[in-house]
Amino acid sequence: MGAQAVTAGVLRERAPDERRVALTPEVVTRVRRSGVDVLVETGAGASAWFTDADYTAAEAAVVGVDELLSRADVVLCVAPPDRETAAALRSGQTLVGMLDPLRQAPLIGELAARGVTVVSLDLLPRTLSRAQTMDALTSQANVAGYKAVLLAADAYDRYFPMLTTAAGTSKPAAVLVLGAGVAGLQAIATARRLGAVVTAYDVRPAAQSEIESLGAKFLELPGVASAAGEGGYARVLTEEEQRAQLAALTAAVPRFDVLITTARVPGRKPPLMVTAEALERMRPGSVVVDMAASELGGNVELSEPDKTAVLAGGVTLMGAGNLPSVMATAASTAYARNLSALLAHLVADGAVRVDLDDEIQAGVVVAHGGEVVSPAVAPQNGGNR
Ligand code: NAD
């Protein structure tokens, strides 16, 4: 390594439901090869089953948080840091994570004002092919879509596959997936691997061929036309379209044993797709997993994040929480690779080089040089400060 080297510090996550870690030992080795020294906070990987000894073997220095924050040029995390940690970051340092900047505007504004450079992987331009290795939204959505199906299968008191035994033949589960983006497509593939008969729906017309290529059936809904928006995302439906969609889904949903919903529109409250009436019409023993469940509401009426309820009609309704954290080892492994690809892009000649003319950096760099520079965040923050 040359005279100058960047030091990256991996924080232990502090949110109570966050078991992931920003870099895994395997990726520490890779990052060190590119001339970045790595510090890891004591116990940072423990809840994802990576020990301090694993990090030491990968030639990271395992240190306490105070030393980490004082020595690191780049501080790496998964979820936004808590107030105390954020308050210790200083001018010239760079914070990199999935910082949810659209909802964390006060934190971003505060860090920007103190001269901290803030980089958030959730604003990565996802359609650029050279950015694909950095796409943490995709890697984490894949984990979540897989896990959602396992949770549904676990709560479902029958088989997913058709099984023929001396005691008779079981009918395969009929699974419906609403929303066929990254998480939805992974949910379809996983349910198919478990032997279910899968049907899926999305408002983007491009989703139909993707659904069918995974061996699932596309659900046609009368009265709902294409709602493709920008950048491969869906647009918000008009009120009339939403009414038509809800009515068509209320008729369709009760035919299925298991329902998994994943629909989202960037920066908006998730669209409501399944009413309480549709839930009442489902058969007892049916299972619903709402992956869009949030404090603002989800795709399913009555769902709450991290809560499972058995409704009066015998339907189990699960509001998903932080599913990537539930599969912390796989999620961290993928996230760490995304992060190392981004680091390789940000670091040159022993320093972090911010270049807002670069398409990737223009997306992910949220704050730099004392200002909020991301157009996606600045207006919500009362403009540049
Ligand atoms: P997302 O999490 O924003 O939404 C999930 C799905 O919900 C989307 O497919 C969306 O169309 C759907 N949806 C929204 N409102 C709906 C409604 N009212 N009814 C039915 N479905 C609704 O999406 P995502 O998983 O982040 O992926 C969005 C798109 O980006 C996809 O097309 C994906 O293939 C694409 N993508 C492309 C790249 C790339 O080109 N490298 C990388 C990642 C994702």
TrEMBL record:
Coiled-coil region: none
Pfam families: AlaDh_PNT_C, AlaDh_PNT_N
Function of the protein: The transhydrogenation between NADH and NADP is coupled to respiration and ATP hydrolysis and functions as a proton pump across the membrane.
EC number: 7.1.1.1
Keywords: NAD, NADP, Nucleotide-binding, Translocase
Organism for this UniProt entry: Streptomyces synnematoformans
InterPro entries according to UniProt: Ala_DH/PNT_CS2, AlaDH/PNT_N, AlaDH/PNT_NAD(H)-bd, NAD(P)-bd_dom_sf
Broad EC category: translocase
Protein name according to UniProt: proton-translocating NAD(P)(+) transhydrogenase
Domain named Alanine dehydrogenase/pyridine nucleotide transhydrogenase NAD(H)-binding: residues: 153-319
Catalytic activity: NAD(+) + NADPH + H(+)(in) = NADH + NADP(+) + H(+)(out)
Family of this protein: Belongs to the AlaDH/PNT family.
Location of the Alanine dehydrogenase/pyridine nucleotide transhydrogenase N-terminal domain: 9-144
